[in-house]
Amino acid sequence: MTESKLWGGRFAKTTDKLVEDFHSSISFDRILYEHDIKGSMAHAKMLGRQGIITESEADQLIECLQGILQDINAGQVEFEVGAEDIHMNIEKILTERVGDVGKKLHTARSRNDQVALDIRLYIKAQIKEVQALLLHQQRVLLDLAAEHKGSIMAGYTHLQKAQPISMGHHLLAYFQMFRRDYERLSDCYRRADALPLGSGALATTTFPIDRYFVAEELGFSAICENSLDGVSDRDFIVEFISAASLIMVHLSRFSEEIVLWSSNEFGYITLDDGYSTGSSIMPQKKNPDVAELVRGKSGRVFGHLMGTLTMLKGLPLAYNKDMQEDKEALFDTVDTVKKSLLVFAPMLATMRVNVERMHDRAKGGFINATDAADYLAARGVPFREAHAVIGNLVKLAEDKDVALEDLSLEDFQQLSPVFQSDIYDYIKIEKCVAARNIPGGPAIPAVEAAIASGEKWLAAQQA
How far apart are CA 256 and CA 240, in angstroms? Predict the structure, then answer.
């Protein structure tokens, strides 16, 4: 019999060293120690309350578990690979300290529902931390949008100049993306907020446990209503990594624009020295490495999402050892998203927007062509006809190598007699932006309304 293993009763041979190393998860699931101990303390309290163990034994277990938690936090505990995982490491330490009473803690509990509990506690805590980082980023975006509500820039489609907007309007698009990210995490939190403990290995237990008491002790709003599902559900992990993937998509898209905007060709922004790096050979270089790294790290998170989905797709109910693979993917996703958000917000807050350069660059590319077509349409010309007229005007301006506003009135009237001298004021880029005073639009009053709406939402989340 392999007495060194807590499960070794029916085994006559020790685990092969290669298998032990391959099987052990303590190298990464040690991160769950605080959640594991808190879950064990609530479980012990319930066992004593229900008379499954004595109240004195429950108190002894809880006191010892508190001591173990303090010792781990103080760096005074070494975990053993041979004890396999965080659950058995802590149980081993507990039993060494209190003797046979420690062996009673696992009554009415399996590692299957224990690890499911730990991960849910972990993910709930991490959702709150990621949401706090998102709110900080939203604060930065609203402040920048307010500062640059009138800073004219080119809006793009297909990375070709399309219509004039403001930098404030552009930044508020990302505010909406990250707002949805925050709300997706809130949805994920609700589905993670169910207690799996009490599911046992898969079929609950014969002991008269009180799952609702444990749920209340640990801050869960509900219990998992099916024991098979309780131990085998990892939907909430997939959902979290999916939400995290979208956060990284949005960060990556924003990063791409930061890279473009900071280039000499655009010159819209200048990044702070503290959030840039240089070249080992080219003295003039100031590289947007933070944005590039965030853009690159998105692939890690996408990979974890696909890996977790693939791991789960063929598993029969209930628990299977394959599920051990969920943790490294989850932990790295959390680490990647938090670090990316942590560095991204101050990079934005410290960048300098080159307002005049942005404005000057917005003048090219016939960015006011749609407004010229609107001018005709507002005077009774069917829009499709107006579109064709302006297309011909653009071709004429290209041939003359000038902007639309540099064409003569005779040029305009040659293609449509509807044009009058007021066309020049109508297609000034400032007027093009100001005319779009529609909810969700780029005009200053519309941007101010969007900022006010964003402030209201932000205040509600922080209340």
Answer: 24
